[in-house]
Design goal:
The chain is an all-alpha fold and 471 residues long. It contains 20 helices and no strands. The two termini are 30 Å apart.
Length: 471
Amino acid sequence: MTSAKVTEAPEEGYERGLGSRQVQMIAIGGAIGVGLFMGAGANIAKAGPSIVLMYALAGVVIFFIMRALGELLLYRPVSGSFAEYAREFLGPFFGFVTGWTYWLMWVVTGMAELTAAAIYIHFWFPEIPQWVSALVFLVVLFGVNLISVKIFGEVEFWFSMVKVTAIIGMIVIGLGVLTLGFSDAGDTAAVSNLWSHDGFFPNGIGSSLMTLQGVMFAYLAVELGVTAGESENPEKTLPKAINTLPWRIIVFYVGALLVILSVVKWTEFSAGESPFVHAFGKIGIPLAAGIVNFVVLTAALSSCNSGMYSTGRMLRGLAANNEAPRAFARLNARKTPAVGITVSVALMGIGVILNYVVPEKAFTYVTSVATAAGIWTWMMILVSHIRYRRAVDAGRLRASSFPAPGGAKFSWVALAFLIGVTVMIAADQDARVCLYVAAGWAVALGIGWTVLKKGNPAVADRDQDRFEKVG
């Protein structure tokens, strides 16, 4: 790492190519990804209809986390907010770790999206190896991100439009099957499917709780919609974005799953396939399953596209804080952080290798690692919020204009929940691989921090005064 001073702010120099319609649609579409479209299949097989309750429970905790983040953002709106608040309330080392870990989360999430996209291609072309499809999508999206932010924004706009329109259409069609009884599934579709096949908890409450680590993956990156370093009017836009989050969860997650589990009994779903594709294949509407498969494919590519976009900018932000090599701060002629994107995409290529070596477990492995990184980020938000409220109560910091309900109480509840999910990850034979990765990542970050502190002590100590004032 270098001690050279980076004078530009992390957000300076970018092409301001995202229009209002693109930003709004991307924010709405960000609530829908492969955690729902793909991951729900394995979760349904484990938990049965009770998976709806697990998504709702996790959604409540996510809302607590977003309200905590919202209070911090209205106290001090900043770009790179997770790492910035960790620096202020927990110390410089935690800011360094959080910034790099959030970047890792997006890299690994990109691997998960590529894996899901490759699985969806099997629906039409089962003879194509999974790793080949993953590699092709990786190269194409890499090219899109290097060309221009305007092209990225337009591609992402239409990806999000397809996702949002389709999932609302799925809910409407499913309700039509339930109420009017049309289609091949009309004779067996009924709300009673939610409890008539071995009950609401067919495999026991323990099995249902074990799905929470997979469920939490579905909510990764929901925080991107409220981290507004680019928000023109954070006092107005951030509370609105956070307070409408429950409705997005109710419609896109709870509502959609209630409908498909009523239309098709839970015993027909399995891991390795999208429950939405299976449900519409069962309904028997001509070409419906193929259309839905196209929709879930665009959802996977959309999330991967967003991941590539985000990772390059995260690395540029770290470089601007002298916490990453100076090369990551450079923009190319098209005003994109090409070096950061290229390095991130190269690491996403590990996902292609996993799809070659262990195609049947690749999705589970990468989602568990991404979830562990996401849990760390959420924990840092919660602990920062708890320390912020303590400082406010002591009169050391000003109060935010958007206080979280219950003060820090719900942050403690959410923190305990996340610790419980981590314990469940450790108990899952396939998912616990992420803890081994986390141990290696911790060692790497420890070495990186030691090198940084030795090479440039001023960078390591610059936030120490602010941290000590918080108390």
